[in-house]
Specification:
Helices cover about 50% and strands about 15% of the residues. By secondary structure, the protein is α/β, with parallel strands linked by helices.
């Protein structure tokens, strides 16, 4: 059985609250403790850098995926287990999807939202059945979660896909939910 990996979408910035960086480090620690590898955008700055550095410090596997045009702008991490350099943002998202068993969004900006909601859309149209979740650090995503619930109420987002979206404020709890979902999917596939 190959090693499990989780793709994390998060900011190339650190945000204005220390809780964001702390949560990124805690999630990295939880991944290493569960022997799960990290797939991420490949930067050494911001929350991306916090996660990668913590994973590497603890001996975890860290795979970066970065388009050529962002190597200097996002300051590519040079000490990863492996760095995939791709041509476009679209190729980045495709490869990050292929390399992972599940997906998590930590605080970030429009890029993180774009990457995460592509995963949700792939699930919605039946292309991907991999679990996805949001780490709601310091209530950062409260407004987004409210919008998603409103979208369900208004008939634009099927309740099933909102229910499948795992949301927690604790890094370890969210990871435990993702691992449980992955395990139940594996058990289900053995029955087919």
């Amino acid at each position: 059985m190959s090693k499990r990996r989780i793709t994390v979408f998060c900011g190339a910035g650190s945000g204005n609250r220390p809780e964001y960086a702390e949560a990124a480090r805690q999630f990295a620690t939880a991944l290493v403790n569960a022997d799960i590898g990290l797939v991420y955008g490949g930067a050494k700055i911001g929350l991306m850098g916090e996660m990668a550095d913590r994973m590497l410090e603890l001996g975890g596997e860290v795979i970066g995926v970065m388009p050529t045009m962002l190597i200097e702008k996002e300051v590519a991490h040079t000490h990863l287990s492996h760095m995939h350099v791709v041509s476009t943002m679209s190729e980045r998202k495709i490869l990050m999807t292929k390399l992972a068993d599940a997906f998590v969004m930590l605080p970030g900006g429009p890029g993180s939202l774009d990457e995460f909601f592509e995963i949700v859309t792939l699930a919605r149209i039946g292309v991907s059945y991999k679990p996805y979740g949001i780490l709601n650090v310091a209530n950062y995503f409260d407004t987004l979660i409210h919008f998603l619930d409103h979208s369900v109420t208004e008939g634009f987002f099927p309740p099933l896909y909102r229910e499948k979206m795992l949301i927690d404020t604790c890094p370890q709890n969210l990871l435990s939910q993702l691992v449980l979902t992955l395990s139940s999917q594996a058990d289900h596939s053995l029955l087919l």
